[in-house]
Amino acid sequence: MKEEKAITLVSLIITVVLMLIIITVTYNVGNNLTQSVELQEIYTQVDIIQASLANIIQDTNEDKLNEYKINENEDKFVEYTPKELEKNFDITGITQNAWINWKTRQVYMLYNNEQIYSIANYVENEETNTEKTIDFNIEVTRQDDRYHIKITPNDNQTNYDIAYKKNGATNWVLINKYEFDLVEEGDYEFKINDKFGNEATKLQTVAYIQDKIKNDLILWYDGINKYR
User: Fold this and answer.
1) Most buried residue among 2, 74, 97, 160 by CB atoms closer than 10 A?
2) Which helix or strand (DSSP H or E) is residue 209 part of?
3) Domains plus CATH for the chain?
């Protein structure tokens, strides 16, 4: 009798554990699907706004340009609420604020504090000669258990695609942020490119030992000067 009760108790515990595992897995899968749907909706809304920009500029009277904060000569993002987008530009179905750069025709919204840009970035009034040499600087600083990377294009433009990969890896990681963090040390390749195919690539070592060697060399050099 005691053995039967013990077996029953063990079976009950196993059943409860299995149910908890199933509930956890189901929740995670459902949560990931929900996030995927929400993110796709953001991409759709951003593309809807961007597809309307050219017509908005063409159809807006000059006296309304300042009122609607439209300036094709200024490379900056202007924030609009859904009500402003509907009232001023007749863009409906937008559920959150959007940022528009009227010079570069870029649009982004926020999702989990990340900037989600339009998939197709283009500028209709760009000069026909689009070939140019681009370059950028990389700044690496150590922050606790990670490395903070800052990419600065030499022309200070903000419409480049940013990507990185470990040296020797096959696939690039598209980050599209000028500042981001890396956890793993090693040699990395960093790349920026624009919509016309111009690109620049640089190899950079990301490691704490790099700072240590630099500091040791400075101390060694100072020691020679001091005690020579």
Assistant:
1) 160
2) helix 208-227
3) 2-117 (no CATH), 136-213 (2.60.40.10)
Residue 150, Cβ neighbours under 10 Å: how many? 12
The two tokens of residue 42 are 């953001």
Which two three-digit tokens encode residue 117?
């840009």
Instruction: Say how far apart CA 2 and CA 94 lie, in whole Å.
Output: 65
Of 133, 150, 157, the C-alpha closest to 204 is 150
Instruction: Find, among 211, 213, 204, the residue nearest to 137 by Cα.
Output: 204
Contacts of 72 (CB under 8 A, 6+ apart): 57, 102, 103, 125
CB burial class (10 A; 0-12, 13-18, 19+) of residue 82?
middle
Q: Is residue 116 helix, strand or coil?
A: strand
Residue 148 backbone dihedrals phi, psi, to 5 degrees: -95, 125
Starting at the edge strand found earlier in the chain, the sheet holding 136-143 runs: 136-143, 146-153, 179-182
- Confidence (pTM): 0.41
Distance CA 145, CA 118 (A): 33
Tens of pLDDT, residue by residue over 5-53, are: 555 777 778 877 777 777 766 655 554 545 577 888 888 888 888 888 8
Length of the chain: 228
Phi, psi (deg, nearest 5) at residue 103: -80, -45
User: Using CA atoms, how far apart are residues 117 and 110, in angstroms rounded to an integer?
Assistant: 9
